[in-house]
Amino acid sequence: MNSKRRPDETTVAVLMGGWSAERKVSLASGEACYKALRNAGFNAIMVDVKRETIFQVLADMKPDVIFNALHGKWGEDGTASALFETLGIPYTHSGVLASAVAMDKQKSKALFKEAGVPVAESLVVPLEVAASRHPMPLPYVLKPVAEGSSVGVHIIDRNANGPLMTIMDERAIFGDSVMVERFIAGRELTCAVMGDVALGVIDIVSHHGTFYDYESKYAHGGSEHILPANIPNDVYRRCQKYALMAHQALGCRGVSRSDFRYDDTNSEKGELILLEVNTQPGMTGTSLVPELAKHAGHSFEELVTWMVNDASVDR
Hints:
Elements: E1 11-17, H1 23-39, E2 43-49, H2 54-61, E3 65-68, H3 79-87, H4 96-103, H5 105-115, E4 122-126, H6 127-132, E5 140-143, E6 154-156, H7 171-174, E7 177-182, E8 187-194, E9 197-206, H8 214-218, E10 223-226, H9 233-250, E11 255-263, E12 271-278, H10 288-295, H11 300-310
Parallel strand pairs: 1-2, 1-3
Antiparallel strand pairs: 4-7, 5-6, 5-7, 8-9, 8-11, 9-10, 11-12
Helix pairs in contact: 1-11, 5-9
């Protein structure tokens, strides 16, 4: 981590909004981080990112640090990081390669598996195939290869009469291909990494169905967060271990959040599976990373201050 930056001498451009499917969430994250940075004494400036002007806006502004509060494509797939690197402005979160690989579920799962982190069996098929027949035995999950915040996720359960034909109407989200993944029953767990330290583990109870969907994540009352998770100690430690291993396998920087499924219905030991790593985790009033940081003794202001001090180029 870089030496501490004096807040009263540091201008921080908080990038938010953008044009991805997660624009609304990004605006909420950006506003929350902006307020926390201002409370911490930084000269924070909110920047609603526009595709046509962002390069010139940042070149003219010349901020000391870019706080990347963007979510979804462009914001967290490495493209924005490449822009920051080109401008030579220190920025938060992960660099180009880690961001790009983490956003691609197929490539990131291959890295996790190589590192010894358990992942669910999956395959990528053309969208037309997923709409015309079951690509694997029921139950399974359909998800975009490169989206976040559970955008476009569908669970095809054992009672399904046939494949999800309406998926063809979602080509704007999926593109030409879709990931088909074995459904893991059980609980949704999440663990954040801050630098090289795995924080606590949250057990997420969704009030909007069987998994932690978009509404569960961002609607007030959409889910209940149990922290620390009420799970066996060895599973808790494994969750932290795998989160750190996944963070390091990708080469992440700053903060990341790893999402897991824990199925303890079929055996005493249970099955713990890593679903994905989010290199741009949400930072809203209902978000998990600020909650985990607080549990570890870091206020929201202290968390964003740490992230600004951690910012650099060549990430």
